[in-house]
Amino acid sequence: MNAEMINERDLITMKLLYYFITVKNYSPIIVQGAKNEIWLENLEEDVKIVRIVNNYIHNDEQMEFDIFKTKRLVSKIKKKTFSFKMQVLNIFTDLGDNVNLEKLDNSDKVYKYINAKVEKDILDNSIIKSNFSDLKNNFQFREEGFSLFLKITNEINQKNREEAVKNGDIFENKKIIVTYILIGILVFIFLAGTFLGQNNFLINYFAIYGPYIRNYHEYYRLLTGTFLHGGIFHLLSNCYALYIIGSQIESFYGKKKFILIYLFSAICGSLMSIALSNNASIGASGAIFGLMGSLLYFGYYYRVYIGSTWKTNILPVIILNLLLGFMLPNIDYFAHIGGLIAGVLISMALGLKYKKNKRDQINGVILSMIFLGFLVYLGIFLK
Question: What H or E segment, with its residue span, contains residue 298?
Answer without folding.
Answer: helix 285-301
